[in-house]
What we know:
The protein is mostly helical and 57 residues long. The protein has 2 helices and no strands. The protein has helices at residues 2-13, 15-41. The longest helix has 27 residues, at 15-41. The model has no long low-confidence stretch (mean pLDDT 90).
Amino acid sequence: MVAIAVVAILLIALPAYRWFFLISVLIGLVIAGGLTLWHKLHPIEEQDVEPKRPLGL
């Protein structure tokens, strides 16, 4: 809640922060979309995970 309030105050009070915030959100969405696409095309399979039982249980 505090973080949302701080971002809202900065977006209202500082016009330059709006551009920074917009560019940051766009970069984050592009990276998230790229990672999502990558993991859909290259799913992790069981044999790729090591160690399968790290505690030996």
